[in-house]
Amino acid sequence: MDTLSNTNYNPQVTSHKKNATNYNKNRTTMTARHAILPCSLLGTLGILSSYDQAKADNRPNILIILADDLGYSDLGCYGGEIETPNLDALAENGIRFNSFYNTSRSCPTRASLLTGLYQHQAGIGRMTFNDHLRGYEGTLSHNAVTIAEVLGEAGYNTGMVGKWHIAETPLKPDQRQWLAHQVYYPEFTDKANYPTYRGFQDFYGTIYGVVDYFDPFSLVNGEEPVREVPSDYYITTALSDSASSYIDRYAKSDKPFFMYLAYTAPHWPLHALPEDIAKYEDTYKVGWEEIRNKRYERMKELGIFPGQDNYLSKRQFDDKWEDNPTKEWDTRAMAVHAAMVDRMDKGIGEVIEALRRNGMLDNTLIIFMSDNGCSNEDAQNYSPGENDRGDMTRDGRQVIYPRQKKVLPGPQTTYASIGARWANVANTPFRFWKAQQYDGGICTPMIAHWPKGIAKKYEGSINASRGHVMDIMATCVDLAKAEYPSEYNGNEIIPMEGKSLKPIFKKGTRQGHEYLGFEHFNQRAFLSRDGWKIVGPGVRAKWELYNLNNDRTEMHNVADEYPEKVAELAKAYEEWAERCFVVPYPGQKRDEQGQ
Question: 362 exposed, middle or buried (CB, 10 Å; 0-12, 13-18, 19+)?
């Protein structure tokens, strides 16, 4: 077993670098471009000496890594067949959480993670459009502070790399041409909502939510649009290189750093490098059911849910792989998904290597998670050229949306996703997927690695403590010895909802949340400390009730057997919803929600 320490860790990136695309030939140029930020404050950060000589501040560095639409069992350390040796090594020498929760979708999760609040309190109750309701403004609220704002005040360097997606992004009259880089606007949203105005000294990434991996729309360096990228550009590699360059620079400071690395992978569109796709071209020919069953068996071997047996939920579909008329396309689609995850893991290995060579790995808390469950969407059925979905490349080539699955996914000129059947596999052992409030939508793989901060006896352990992405803020404040403000920049700040994970790192347990509330487009859930969970799948749907203590994958709705428990949790949900600015979908009244 590899040991993730400054002296022994040997990340699995060597073969990646030997076999990388020509993009890496431009790596020095691109890294320098990423590093030179017009808003950078590093010139005033102190003496530029080596990390070991200058580091008087012994507070930990903090690196939060967020994947996009990653399934619960996609990683090798959670049972998957995708090769993820770097994340597996973090898990083997850190803590894996089996009951860590998100908000079921991208932008709400990002808002909750960065602010320590429920997403509605942070202003992103649904998506990045403005419903003109409190909690649904579509832009990160100024009654919330970000981790970067709080830790920056506490003396940390702060950098972000990757997908922002928490600012209102109005459409332009010539949106299609803008998406294809054929017209130019200097701002992708009001710059007051850019990361550099929310506490991040450094930023390289995208403002919008969905991007072309080979030529991303809304790519920004600091506050300036990146007007063009090299011909062999691939965003996952660029984000990894940028994060590594930031670490090299922060290592010369006498301050610890907070970095938020938000990959776009493996969110659709299915775009991957040919050599990565080739690695998995035969893997998924056996079909949905066999891959799902194999993942479940590996999960049992790994002990992901210790003490529970026979917890694989029934497949969402009854159709058989052998009867599938589009086997070739579906095999390729999942191979591309795997390739995107594989390339992300390689990049994470590069980032870990940057920490190691700078002597920073042992005292850096690394947290890795996904923003929601894998997506069931059929992106190939969307309307080309709308919102953030391009229909042509920069040079005018048509982007094909293969509704009939006649064109294989992977290249820049295709736009597709894996669909519901593979999403059901990616989210093994749970039911459902992204945007749903069953655990297939809201339970994320979560790894914490911190050699100096996690007690030795918990290294390699699997922890069943329930947590939520809003706990990341509380953990950062705790470890940075920072002060969470009641007022910031003249705005009253909503009290923090999250709870620190530090006790789990030290003692293996903590006093957790009394409850966790969930709502997204009227998909509702409420989870109590004692493991009872209600789910309301729709505006008028009756509450379902599950006991996660003996039914971890929500296979047995016992609402009719325990009506008093349903009433108790439904009342608590209503109180939470009122407190946290959760409202029914516009036009609906609360008493129409099936209560």
Answer: middle
- What pLDDT is stored for residue 105 in this prediction? 96
Q: What is the block-wise mean pLDDT of the chain (595 residues), using blocks of 10 residues?
A: 37 32 32 34 32 68 98 98 98 98 97 98 92 90 98 98 94 94 95 97 97 97 97 98 98 97 98 98 98 98 92 95 98 98 98 98 98 97 92 97 98 98 98 97 98 97 98 98 97 98 97 96 95 92 96 97 98 96 61 32
In DSSP terms, 261 is beta-bridged to 65, 161
- DSSP designation for 394: T
Beta strands 257-262 and 61-67 are parallel
C-beta pairs of 276-279 under 8 Å, 24+ apart in sequence:
276/339, 276/340, 276/342, 276/343, 277/332, 277/335, 277/336, 277/339, 277/410, 279/83, 279/338, 279/339, 279/342
Structure confidence at residue 585 (pLDDT):
58
Tracing tokens 């309301």 back to the chain, one arrives at 536
Strands 157-163 and 257-262 turn out to be parallel
Q: Which amino acid is at 196?
A: T
Work out the number of other CB atoms within 10 angstroms of the CB of residue 528: 18
- In three-state form (DSSP H/G/I as H, E/B as E, the rest C), the secondary structure along 247-298 is HHHHCCCCCCEEEEEECCCCCCCCECCHHHHHHCCCHHHHCHHHHHHHHHHH
Neighbours of 485 (CB within 10 A): 15
3-class secondary structure, 300: helix
Q: Which residues lie closer than 8 Å to 550 by C-beta, 6 or more apart?
A: 308
Integer Cα distance of 74 and 428 in angstroms:
9
Find tokens 């620079």 and name the residue: 249
Q: What is the dihedral of CA 131, 136, 139, 140, to 10 degrees?
A: 170
Please calculate the CA angle 203-206-519 and round it to the nearest 5 degrees.
Answer: 105
218's CB contacts (< 8 A; 6+ apart) are: 169, 188, 206, 207, 208, 211, 225, 388
Q: Residue 74 has what pLDDT?
A: 98
Q: What is the pLDDT of residue 379?
A: 96
